[in-house]
Hints:
The structure holds 3 protein chains of 3 kinds. By secondary structure, chain B is of the alpha+beta class.
Amino acid sequence: MSFVEITKLVKSFGPEVAVAGIDLSVEQGEFVTLLGPSGCGKTTTLRCIAGLEHPDSGDIQIEGDYVTSATNDVFLTPEERNLGMVFQSYAVWPHMTVFDNVAYGLRIRRETRAAIKEKTTKALNLVGLGHLAERYATKLSGGQRQRVALARAIVYNPKVVLFDEPLSNLDAKLREQMRIELTRLQHDVGITSIYVTHDQTEALVMSDRVVVMDKGVIQQIGDPETIYAEPTNAFVANFIGVANLMEGKLLGHDGELTEIEIPLGDGSAPIRLRATGAEGAPVDAKIILSIRPEDILLHLEKPADASNLIEGEVIDTVYLGNFLDCQVQVGPHEVGVQIDHFEELDLGQKVYLSFTPDHGLCLTE
Amino acid sequence: MTDNNYLQVDYLVKYFGDDRAVDGISFGIPEGKFLTLLGPSGCGKTTTLMCIAGLHKPDAGEIRIGADPVTSMEKSINIAPEKRNIGMVFQSYAIWPHMDVTQNVAYPLEIRNMAQSEIDDRVAEALKIVGLTDMADKNATQLSGGQQQRAALARAMVFRPRLLLFDEPLSNLDLKLREQMRVELKRIQHEIGITSIYVTHDQAEALVMSDEIIVMSKGNIEQSGGPHAIYARPVNKFVSDFIGVANLTEGRIVGNGGAGTGTIEIAQGGEDVQLPCLLADGLAEGDDAYLSVRPENVNASRKPVDGPRIEGEVIQSVFLGNCLDCRVKWGEFEWKVLAHSRERLRVGEKVYVSLDPDHTLAVKP
Amino acid sequence: MTTDTASPHIDVAPPRGWRTWFTQENLITTVVGIIVAVAVFLPLIALVINSFLVLDDLGFDTEWGLQNYREVFQGRVIRKALVNTALISTGCTILATLLGVSLAWVNARTNCPFREQLEPFNLIPFFLSPFVGAIAWHNLASPKVGLLNNMAKSIFGISFPLFNVNNLWGVIWVTGIFFAPLVYLFVVGSLRRMDPSLEDSARTTGAGLLRTTMTITLPLVTPAILSGAIIVFVTTAGEFGVPFKLSAPFGWETLTTQIFTKAVGDDANHYLGAAMSMVVGVVTAFFIWIQHRIIAPRAYTTVTGKGFRPNLIDLGGWKWLAFGYNVFYVCVAVILPIICLLFVSLHKIWSGSVIWSELTFWNYQKVLFFWWPESIDAATNGIINSFILAFGGASIAMVLAIIVSYMIHRTKGFGSKMLDFLSVIPIGFPGIVLAMGVLVTYIKTPIYATLWILLLGYITRFFPYGQRNISSIMMAVSEELDQSSRMAGASWLTTLRRITIPLLKPGIFAGWILLFVIFLRELSISIILYSVGTETLSVGVYYLSNFENEPMTAALSIAQTVALLICVVIFRKVAGKEALTA
Ligand SMILES: Nc1ncnc2c1ncn2[C@@H]1O[C@H](COP(=O)(O)OP(=O)(O)OP(=O)(O)O)[C@@H](O)[C@H]1O
Ligand SMILES: Nc1ncnc2c1ncn2[C@@H]1O[C@H](COP(=O)(O)OP(=O)(O)OP(=O)(O)O)[C@@H](O)[C@H]1O
Ligand SMILES: [Mg+2]
Ligand SMILES: [Mg+2]
């Protein structure tokens, strides 16, 4: 039995099903991220765990105890669950000092004055705000407010801390810094965390495990490397990082490798490529080939020995400083290629693309 | 300061009280090009743009469009904004909420007393270019942020102005939309070929969109040039730091190899290292300078490499999907390294840092 | 190509001296500023001067001295009135705050049934005349003719009067229920806009519902509550009609009723009146200053993140209690008074109970049919004059408001700050105080005893209300909307006509109707400044109440109330539901 166990969670708002039957378990001390596009039900799931939303059906157990159970008719109110939560809008109470904000949860738990003082100071030092304890929350910057919110959520040692896009109101530089800081802090404190975001970089950087959701359903669960390198379907491949997706047909298996054919539309001959994945699929099965832009090599001249060669025409280049993002038209497909050195490319120029077979992943529906 | 520039700004000065917001800057832009004013908040970008628009009156200087001066403080010329025939797009969209999209776009033409049939044609054409044909009858308030900004663009260009001005038009949009609109805006500008000046503090935006970039700080121009030149060859510490991410550390020029190459010496924790580098214009042997290298041009490997030895410890390694964002500690200095994700550098490992001499720069302090 | 263009130093000094100050903007703002300043300050200065002039025993000559103030603080009658005013203001503030906050909470934060339908009714008292409310409650609950008392007697056989509003408590009760919407308006907007995650985070931290409400929700709206309470305190201190009707005839005078007796009539002593006005004005201005400088800036700006959803508190079975409470308020503040007045107005003589066989429209003929020789001039004149004043006054005040707002927000001259300051001042002084100032200023000019002096008083006192309406929209509408019109090729004037004014239209309408309502029911300025022939509607009601009988008073009151209710409906139509609370 895991530390947090969610089974068959369903929640709808009127006719709209926000969460359509989710099963998820989270181990103690783990950092799990719910990742998905806007409106896929991440916040709703989190609010069900917090008790701020009453699910239609399904059970949630924390440390073996039911906090919500439609079958057993149990529903604990948020304040009975002993959780911490950090919101996107900081939600730092403006009528209290930083200290009072953080101490609030301890006062409710009727801790002694000395204990409150000690724990609050410790939490504030942990988030690096010890020197601002007497400030009013209105006089803090966005990043500082979010740190107060964090200290407030962990100070009374809750069972689980829930985060709802806590960094998305911060500017880019600060966000990157806070990501690292939050991960470090979570490791130090060792508190079980469930984190909601729609920013894939955030999910990759911070989590032990990532839960990719779409339309109220879980698409894949795995650690960041796996999710990135071995997406199980086209949605995940495209949502995490950037992927070039091309539909094709499976020709056969050759040891580890898979031979496939990508049709290029009327008139042109289809291209034959070698890739990995789709092990169990039969010959002639429909597959989707997924290749990351950074795994494609671009050649100006036809290389002598490269297998897996694709011919195309440059249709757009975007200079991003540390690399050049180049769109190449291949039959009906636009293939994105990331080049890590600067190259003068003309629009309409003919180029050759290649990739090693283990960078191409075949996905089946 | 060539004569073939379509817009020419000379020695522009603007005071707010005693504060010199624009400090005597000069620049020009050839017809049909896309120029970006880039700089941190408060550096005078908007003020410069407002002077060109005629919404602010400068205290000195001259602004010429084509052959006619629109502002010349010496000759006491300052043409009213409505007589300049310049289109402008604002950060807040500034779509008039009491009119629908068509009325908004038709307004500048009505002001010019055009025939109704001509107005209809031009509005339809402008809406088509920005991709809002289907939204013509919608009220401005029913549009999303991105659509409102397109409508604002259609309105600014429908009367075929001599110049298009943009003041951070994308900064109210969310990240995804912003990235998409960058490419879109650039495409539209290319299509209609109107000379444009764009203000932003987002360096990625400037790199993607511009033909020419002017980097400003405190009312002065720090550097101007094409995106690649600015990114790859910053002339001073400010530009290097502001554009992209750079490893910057203090050093001294100890050798001049001619043809713009030289040697810089940096010291850290008692170790002196001499590195071959490219010298920024005007740096000579013996000068204090800064070493500037982009993270993607820093290599960290487990085996020792030829050349200067920089040995450090990995203190951070963050998985970003397509790459690893690492920090390598060397004395007090932390090298920022972008490594390929397949290298799997782990925290605590000892690594050897080497720099690509073609991308190692010595820049002015 | 990379260029390193260090810009050469251009030797220009920052612009200085009178030439730079002498811009078109500064010129216009200063001129308008001076006009407004004269209109606002002249009466106040006159008030100060007159309050130090002491009338000699014969009543012919004056000399400088502090005798007037001595009279206010030591004279038996006036000192008692001062104490009464303080008691009434305090009591009313407490009652109105309790009512306003609880009603706002019920409407904005709970699942009380039918709250959307109830909300407009909660706001009706804001538009009606408290003076009429006092007349209604006099007829409902005075010991002798009170309808409620008589019903209690006939139904339950209670022989002693159950209620008595002819004392300080009565005044507190009527002003309390009529000014509760002021607090309500401040608080309800604040509650609705509050970020729900502020409360959610308290819940997840471990606080229960009650504790969250007491330690998070209420403290967060405290600045709004205090603002509302101060406005109520100040408004009550300047309220003339209610104490005049309910308590003054029974020996409970207030400063306002005393000022009135010193302004008109046989006992007139403008200098003493000015001194009393000064006392009231200094106190109210001080409170308004506190509200502006200390409380309003503290209002917690609410950051709302994505996914803003107001979460309502489920009251369970208690929701019907909340519903009942709200209905009770609407009954005592709106329905009971109107029904009572209706019955009274349909009798020729009112004896405290309804006599169904004697209902008649005769009173309405007397007060409404201005072509009828037997009609009462004070009433019919009042109706005509009030509509003229309300229409003209609202229009002129709105034009002034537009100009002033434009200058405050769109020009950056020195004058704009001054205008901003000037347009707060009249709010600090109750109508009767300002009217006293206007009276002593203009009494020797030709506009005295004409409608013009009333118009002047109305506009000076109330144009800030319209100006705030416009200003709030102008702040929300970014300057870039104007600038893009200039860039599109439109001149300043075209931009004003085609962009700025159309954008402000809803605000202009809403402000105009609000002022129209205020002017239509205005009493405390009118009562000081009217003379025979220039009565207003409320003065007409006062006249009937003083010199005719209750039924006729009730008839004119009903007429006024109907006109005001029509305005309320129009206001909600043009300004939208949120107009007042946002
Ligand atoms: N209180 C509510 N009333 C009605 N519909 C709701 C409510 N809360 C959520 N929804 C709907 O449920 C769906 C899931 O919403 P949810 O807030 O969980 O999405 P999310 O994944 O958190 O998205 P985002 O990234 O935009 O925050 C959405 O379609 C939303 O419109
Ligand atoms: N109307 C004004 N009155 C007084 N000072 C002003 C005014 N407008 C700008 N300034 C000052 O002039 C300087 C330059 O302002 P400007 O708006 O040009 O900056 P910016 O580069 O556009 O910055 P941002 O990226 O924040 O928009 C700032 O110091 C600013 O405070
Ligand atoms: Mg969400
Ligand atoms: Mg700016």
